Amino acid sequence: MNLILAILLMVVCLLAGFFLGTWFSQRQTKKLLMDNPPLNEDAVRLMMGSMGRKPSEVQVQQVLRQIRAAAKQSDTNKK
Fold first, then answer.
1. Helix, strand, coil: what percent of the chain each, to 5?
2. Which stretches are transmembrane?
């Protein structure tokens, strides 16, 4: 009986560790992406330049704010 209980406890601990590790890594990844978005100012300038526009600094910052706001809103909608 003690052996079955020990094995069951090990399995439960392994599953709990797996799910907690997954949750923690997902949370850290989201935080990292919110702090350092993969789309930076240079990428926005390049994208707008490829569309035939010469963006001003105000336009670049506006696009970045819109992207960050959309990401934050989608993150809060998922919760």
1. 85, 0, 15
2. 4-24
